[in-house]
Every structure is written in C-alpha cells, then in structure tokens.
TrEMBL record, chain A:
This is ABC-2 type transport system ATP-binding protein. Residues 2-225 form the ABC transporter domain. PROSITE patterns: ABC_TRANSPORTER_2 (PS50893). Pfam families: ABC_tran. Keywords: ATP-binding, Nucleotide-binding. InterPro entries: AAA+_ATPase (IPR003593), ABC_transporter-like_ATP-bd (IPR003439), P-loop_NTPase (IPR027417). It comes from the Bacteria. GO terms for molecular function: ATP binding; ATP hydrolysis activity. The keyword ATP-binding applies. It comes from Oceanobacillus polygoni. SMART domains: AAA. CDD domains: ABC_DR_subfamily_A.
Automatic annotation (TrEMBL), chain B:
This is Uncharacterized protein. It comes from Oceanobacillus polygoni. Keywords: Membrane, Transmembrane, Transmembrane helix. The chain crosses the membrane at residues 12-36, 48-68, 89-112, 132-161, 168-186, 231-255.
Length: 229, 261
C-alpha cells in the first residue's frame, strides 16, 4: 500500500505537488493521468525515494520512504538513459545481481514476449526496443510496488496495444500494486482498475474505472475532460 | 557482496575510457620525452623530466577517474541511485575500480622506466631504485586518495547546488566554498596545538632521491641523483586518513539525503 499524507514538493520556487493526500492499495493497476508538468513524475519519484517531499510524508507498506525503499519498489523512469555498453542479456544479469527479488526466468519470458534479442547491444537498440527493455527490467522484479513513468511512450502505435494487454500476464495482481503514468490513456483504459487525475500538483479525482464506466457511463478520457474543465 | 562485485564489474566498463585516455596521454608524454631527448642526445635527462611529469600527473588520476565516472552517472542518476545499496557501497565501488586502474597504469610505467634507468644509468643500483619507487608510490597514492576524497566531498555539494541553480553558478559557489574551507583547514593545521597533536611518530628518511642532476659537456654527459634527508610524521599520515574518511562519510551523507533525481 502507498500512502501520501499532506505531501508537497517544491523545486526552488516552483511548486510541483501541493498538499497531496493519496492512498493506493495493493492488487490494483492504477493510472496516474494529467497534463505535462502536472506532477505525475514527481509523485512517482517521491514514492521511489528518488525525491524527498518538502512537506508531508510518503509511506510504502507502512515504511517511511527513503532511497533504500528500492528494496521493495521497482521504478521505471521516463528517461532514455542506460549503460550503453551492456547487451540486453548483460542488463538483465546486472539487474538480477542488484535486486534479490529479480526473477530472471520471468525476465526472459517477458523478453520473449517483447521480441527482444538477448545478444543485442543497448547502443544499437531503437528507442522503442529500449523502451521494451525498460519494461522487462521493471516487471521482472517480485516487489509489492511497481512504478512506471510513461512506459509506452517510445513504442510503435501498432504494437502498443498488444504489449499493454500482454503486460497483465506478467503482473501478480494478488501481491503487487502497479502505478502507471501515461498519455496513452485509451490504450491502457481496459487494463486499469483505478485512475487518479492530477492537475497543477493537486489530486483532482480518484476513481474506480469500472464504476466510472458503469455508473457514469464515462471513459477515462471523458471523465478527465470533465474534471479538467 | 555479489551485488557490489557485479557493480564493480560494471564500473570497470564505465570507467575504461578514462583509463585508456590516461594511458595514451602518459605514453605520449614519455615517448615525446624519449624521442626529443634522443634527437638532441639528451635522452636520459628529458625522459626523467617526462617521467617526473607523469608521476605528478598521476596524483590526479583518481580524482580525474572519479570525475569521469560520476559525470557519466549524473546523466542517469535514476539508474545509479535506484538501488538498495548504500551510497558508501556505490562510491567505494568506483574508488576501488579507480585504484585498480591507477595501480595498473602506474605499474606499466614503473616497470618500463625501471628497466630503462637500470640499463642506461650506471649510478642506479637496485636498492636505490626500489627506495625511489617505494617513496614515490606511497606519496602518489596517499596524496591521490586524499585529493579523491576531497573531490567526492565537493562533487556532492556541487550536485546539491545544481538542483537549485545552473551548473556554472553551482560550480562557482562550490569553488568559493572549497577555497573557504581550505583556508580554514590550513589555518587550523597551522595552530601549534594541532602541530603538537599531529607531529608524532617521526621517521627520519635518509637520502631520499628528490631529483636528478644532469651535466652535459661537449663530448660527455654526467648524471647523478639529488638526495636529501627529511622527517616524516606518522601523525600527519593518520590525520590525512581521518580527514579523508570524514570527507568520504560527509559525501555519502549529502548524496543520500540531499541529492534528488
């Protein structure tokens, strides 16, 4: 479970998050949506312990978040920076050496699903394939929390849909909480359990996607359009 | 331990270009000294000057290596810092790799130059050259480690500043802080109280070679070593180790608590 209590974050004079209160429970795939600069990435970094709140507190499974929370949180960054001298296989081996919970067998299964060649060098991979590798490395960890910041941004629109659907099979929804930020809302809509909308550093809505669809007859995009206006 | 070893293996790959750059630079300086010396008939003299220059440069090998490696890491802090490993573990992995590269580079030139001087300068005997190598090694490595710890400390401060302002202003502020803290450190070390506290365990070093003297005549050339005796305090060595350890711990704390991605 992830809890943000009265969390604010400032970068100098710029306010990125403003008194955010949020509770996310295990066993769900949650989408964090909002426009550029709304605070999505900052929220993920705070949960990953890579940023510290200016005010308030972030907890993961009751533990106050520090950088060492990496033990129980898998984080996929939106940035396209790697150790380019690695091959795909070396990246997996390296990740496995750094995290005790890394499941190599699962990693190679996802790799196969992603149609990546283990012997390819990272510096020779296309942006889309580097994006796929990032997904492999973050999903292959058996951790309670997986954070994915724009995981589908580099993927071809033709394959994005099938990759999104396939991802579900690699997530243990009994034990894991997956928080995804994305602009590809239509593609992920069908796999999300909950959606959280963020605007100018404030949470403006938090809904169960099924309820939204059944009770309000709204898609996430419709709902977002409504709350953003 | 496996995680640390695996990380260190990665550090070797990441830092390899820095090692190669230095290796090529040293080879260039030494071969330059040799060929110029050879063409003017003063090979031993110019090669010694080149070697002295390389040894002086080598004091800065570790800080340079750390700068190279940490600059590469700065572009991907989200990968480097997203680990359950302590910052001390992350930095020590870089330091160990740097020291191994430093020893390798040093060994290549020590072996090469020892062979050269033993064969070309007849006043050199094995004992003299081993004494020289021993004192230079201790000097280069202790000073190199101290400067490396200083670099790590100020790099962590620079990184903290750079989150709030641009790199140029962060560098200027860090440099001002460096000058200020160096001045304080120098002033404190000059105090008679500190001198009493650290000037213990004196070792008399007799006839340590501090340089070479070359005389070139019309038809001949003479070479001899310049020696002097000096006093070395173990207390000063311990003081430097303590200060370096404090700076390393402070750098770890700053990166752990203040550096964000």
């Amino acid at each position: 479970m992830i809890t943000l209590t009265d969390v604010s974050k400032r970068y100098g004079t710029k306010k990125a998050l403003d008194h955010v209160n949020l509770e996310l429970t295990t066993g769900k795939l949650i989408g964090l949506v909002g426009e550029n600069g709304s605070g999505k990435s900052t929220t993920l970094k705070l949960i990953a312990g890579l940023n510290y709140p200016t005010n308030g507190e972030v907890r993961v499974d009751g533990e106050k978040v520090t950088r060492r929370i990496a033990d129980s949180v898998s984080y996929l960054s939106e940035l396209d920076e790697y150790y380019r001298f690695f091959t795909v296989k070396k990246s997996i081996e390296f990740q496995a050496s750094q995290f005790k919970d890394f499941d190599k067998e699962k990693a190679y299964d996802i790799l196969k699903f992603m149609k990546l060649d283990p012997n390819d060098k990272l510096k020779q991979l296309s942006k889309g394939n580097r994006g796929r590798l990032k997904i492999v490395l973050s999903l292959a960890r058996n951790v309670p929390v997986i954070l994915m910041d724009e995981p589908f941004s580099g993927l071809d629109p033709m394959v994005r849909n099938s990759i999104v659907k396939g991802l579900i099979s690699f997530i243990d929804l009994e034990k894991q909480l997956v928080l995804i930020t994305t602009h590809e809302i239509r593609e992920v809509e069908n796999i999300l359990d909950e959606v959280v909308a963020i605007k100018a550093g404030s949470i403006i809505g938090h809904h169960n996607v099924e309820e939204l669809r059944e009770q309000k007859q709204m898609s996430i995009v419709d709902w977002m359009t409504e709350v953003y206006e | 331990m496996n995680a640390w070893l695996s990380l260190t293996k990665k550090e070797f790959q990441l830092g390899l270009p820095a090692f190669l750059i230095v290796l090529i630079l040293y080879a260039g300086i030494l071969s330059g000294g040799y060929f110029i010396g050879n063409s003017v008939g003063y090979t031993e003299g110019l090669l010694s000057v080149a070697l002295g220059f390389v040894v002086t440069l080598h004091i800065f090998f570790l800080p340079f290596y750390l700068y190279y490696s940490l600059s590469a890491e700065r572009k991907r802090l989200h990968l480097w810092l997203h680990t359950p490993m302590s910052i001390a573990g992350l930095l020590s992995s870089k330091i160990v790799t740097g020291i191994i590269f430093m020893i390798t580079t040093f060994a290549v030139f020590v072996i090469g130059s020892t062979n050269f001087f033993l064969h070309s300068l007849d006043f050199f005997n094995q004992e003299t050259i081993f004494n020289l190598i021993g004192s230079i090694t201790v000097f280069v490595f202790t000073l190199g480690l101290f400067i490396a710890a200083t670099f790590l400390f100020f790099w962590s401060i620079f990184l903290t500043f750079s989150q709030l302002m641009n790199d140029f202003i962060s560098f200027i502020l860090t440099f001002i802080l460096f000058l200020f803290l160096s001045w304080i450190y120098g002033t404190v070390m000059e105090l008679s109280f500190m001198q009493t506290l650290t000037n213990w365990g004196s070792i008399q070093l007799n006839d340590i070679i501090v340089g070479f003297e070359f005389d070139y005549f019309e038809n001949a050339f003479e070479a001899q070593t310049m020696s002097e005796s000096s006093i070395f305090y173990i207390g000063n060595f311990v003081r430097d180790i303590v200060v370096a350890a404090i700076m390393f711990i402070a750098a770890c704390w700053i990166i752990e608590k203040k550096v964000e991605v």
